[in-house]
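Dear colleagues,

For the upcoming journal club I promised to circulate an example of a predicted protein-ligand complex. I picked one with protoporphyrin IX containing FE because it came up in last month's discussion. The inputs are reproduced below in full, followed by the predicted structure.
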Amino acid sequence: MLSTSVLAVAACFLVATFFRQALSSPLNKLPGPWYARYTSLPLKWHEFSAQRTRYVHSLHLKYGSAVRIAPNEAAFASASAVKEIYCSGGSGYDKTEFYDLFKVYGRRTMFTTLNKEEHAKRKRMMADRYANTNVVREPSLTGISERAARFMQKCRESTDGVVDLFICKLLVSHTHDLISTEQNPDLHSYAFDCVTHHLFHPYGADSLQNVKDEDIMREIAFDDSLQNRILDYYNPILHKVLGKLLYFFAKPRETPLADDFVLGSSAAADPAPFTLLDRLNGQKLEHLDIAAECLDHMAAGIDTTGDGLCFLMWELSQPSSAGYQQRLRGELLANTGAAFDKLPFLDAIVMEGLRCFPPIPMSLPRYVPRGGRNIDGFFLPEGTIVSSQAYSVHRIDETVFPDPGTFRPERWLEQEGDAERRRLFFAFANGGRGCIGKHLALAEMKMLLRAVYSSFETVPDATTTPQDMEMSDQLISSRPQGQKCLLRFDPAQ
Ligand code: HEM
């Protein structure tokens, strides 16, 4: 009897404490749905069902650029908030434990270091390898153009057929019969070959021509571990308890071929001088740390560039973009001798593609530092999780991006508002922890688009629907929901 009363009193105390905290939180001043004061379950549910980005965006549309999304979490979509969260003091606020999910070989890499001092130390070791000057010179550039040429060769072989840009080993005729199980010119293979060239040359991969290498790429690119990893993040104990049982409902991330490939390639003592491996070999790092760093960059460079290109080429293939293809081809053919980064319309196409379809569209979570901070007029106590997501940053301010849902590359050619547009461009994030591979990614994208649209016109194949191309969130990147993207490549007239 006594123990029941004690339990009842304890329960009342807990409930009272819960409501007292919820009702007195400084975050209550932020706009947002009423339930975000009390629970993070709706947010977690949307994460679990691969819809976090759209959910957060719907809250921005309803409540504005600052919104509370959970009891201890707020999202922002303004340029001033992005500057404060990601750029203050150089590299912005520290990352949250969400990034623990990306540890490789049990090691922390530059991407997964949480505090900025450790991050800066690691970044200094390798930043020069990703500087534009190192990317746009030989033999780095030749490596990319050779791989673009291989991709084109594959496209030529399937000229009167249909190419699935998203998935390999599918080559179909106009009647959609499978005509070959030969490798398809998949964009992930292209991105994989390019990034491993930059990491390991001459020990990079050749998945556009070699089926074994393609299998390695598939392990990284076609990963279905979202739910498993989210459970691990939010409830590691439950994740452990469920153990193998979980395997039947939510696959874990398993990449044995990729692990072996990187352990082997990163053990080479004589990589080319422009590579990341060459730079890391000269540092005081254990082999496993070097391998982890390389594996991390390899994974970071496949889905992002591959899916970014995939969404962009799909959009360019729509009837509404026929004029853009024509204008792009005009620019390319009139400037065959020009450097790939001196073509304004090609640049505008890539910028608009990354604005409309940012390969990492979702929140990049950070902790508010000691003492708390004011963001866009709201005080946030220390330890609050804050973030911005490219998908919303690229859409919410219609004075900067009018008609934000429409693919309109020419907006990047207008003088007026140029600085504001670039300030709100968040596809590669911003500040010291923004994408180190940005110049490499842009070179890969532009060189591939130049190769394709100098020779081909692309149109969508009827087997891929707009719904297939809806954005589906993964742990940090997004991919087409239907996991396919079939285009027809016709020789350009
Ligand atoms: C279009 C292609 C790409 C996009 C849109 C992209 C986007 C991003 C974004 C948004 C971040 C910040 C993530 C965060 O804060 O959580 C990031 C970081 C990073 N990216 Fe990329 N990325 C691309 C291609 C690449 C490539 C080709 C590499 C190859 C090396 C790469 C390597 C990295 C690394 C190592 C980081 C961590 C940087 C750090 O912590 O300092 N990315 N990327």
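Two points we might discuss: The two ends are 88 Å apart (CA to CA). Residues 110-111, 123, 195, 296-297, 300-301, 304-305, 308, 359-360, 364, 427-429, 433-437, 440-441 surround protoporphyrin IX containing FE (CB under 6 Å).

See you all on Thursday,
B. R.
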